[in-house]
Amino acid sequence: MAAYRVSGLRIPLRDGITLGADLYTPAGESKGLLLTRGPYGRGRMIARRMAGPWAAQGWTVLFVSSRGTADSGGQFDPMRTEQADGQDVAAWMREQAWYPGRFATVGGSYLGYTQWAMLADPPADLVAAVVLMGPHDFSRHAWGTGTFTLDLFGWTEQTVVLGGRGILRTILGMITANRRLRPVLQATPTVDAAVAHFGDAAPWLRDRLVRDDLADPYWAPMQHAEALERTDIPVLILGGWQDIFLRQSIQQYRRLRERGVETALTVGPWTHLDLTGAAAKVTTVETLAWLDAHVAGIPGPARMARVRVYDKGTDAWVERDDWPAASTTRTLYFDGAALAEAPGTARERRFVYDPADPTPTVGGNIISGGGYVEDGRLADRGDTLVYSTAVLEEDVVVRGAPIVELEHAAEHPDADLFARISDVDPRGRSHNVAEGCVRLRGDANGPVRVELLDTAYTFRAGHRIRLVLAGGSFPLFARSAGTGENPLTAAALVPNTHTVTEGTLTLPVA
Fold first, then answer.
1. CA dist 448 to 285, 319, 413, Å?
2. pLDDT tens per residue across span 414-435
3. To pair with 197 at 20 to 30 A between CA atoms, which of 54, 109, 349, 457?
4. What is the reported pTM?
5. Cα→Cα distances 371→28, 367, 431, Å
């Protein structure tokens, strides 16, 4: 006998639009109701990952397609309608004979975002949530560094242009998306090429590219930081060290923890594309245990620690009571091209960032081609500055967000500064660990602070720590225009000479 049955439903919204949905009903007694919502359709391949695993374990699952996607009515306007639509779905659920009186939410990426959108005004009958690599603020993902994160183009290509063409064609399209989009990303101005490429398939795209002020009311429907202030239910947050939404996952955990909300954090060595791959082996088990404990009331093995993180330097899981887990800091000082234990002599060093030949993205927190990779070629370029420690005499255990602070000047006052720390092994091979970027918009001369993404990483004795500075990382971020204009609408991009004198790298260490 099948573990569950599936029945199609239509959900009416307050504005007359109806959403397509599937109700998964387990063959035996239900543990409770889970709601998951997103724009990726509900076909067999998608459902096997986003609904089937929970239904097979005894949960009733309502799987809803966002408006304007799959068989749902209305116009798809990504991220801007999910808060109101979620409240309407919850109101409709309460009127159904199968509604048990309470529910939980579950899902990753966009399906994680729809949970935060609902938690911005949390229903009283929503009792738990599991968010896997899901942001609460899409505007800050796009423009939070001051420059634009270009993964919206690839997401639009895969979700809007290819999403209705069947799973096999969509997968093929994802593999070749970078090649098709390369002329768009390299065009000047980029916005015109993007609008021409996507045409009527994404009428909402232009607004997201030209509106670079996050205080613009346009962005308000995508901004749900208030969810972190209003949520009081148990929330499990699952993230990846190389995920595109890592910064927000850490922020979510820390704010809920500060407020005393019952929450837990697991971060693995994953990229965003590992969402349904390598990550699923761990996250599925943790999700089911969290739901059993906080929704079904089923006793099981207690979570041994509030925080579980994967240390890529030792390839081992580490458990901690909280995050960040550093007990002190270790400051390394710029001394020529060295990272020294004590302040050295200030020395000017320069590099030129050329948007016609931009410093490339090599692994890291990008959707396609991201993750832990050998990144020595980044340090070998002429448009980067490299600082390295001597060979380490003992392990350096990092638990938190490294900070780079330096004295910086630029030929043009509008500049990007990208920083990355890497692990160099005894054979000289370098692998990325953590990175960060900031746009110095009109204020490129003077002290600069770059907060890298959090990490759990042990630099082993016999290795070296390397810091790389650059004027960008393309195609993770838009190329710096250097003119003070929005980099996507600028008609001209100018090379920029960066000068660095003194600086420090501060590591949170355990």
1. 42, 33, 13
2. 999 999 999 999 999 999 999 9
3. 109
4. 0.96
5. 41, 9, 10
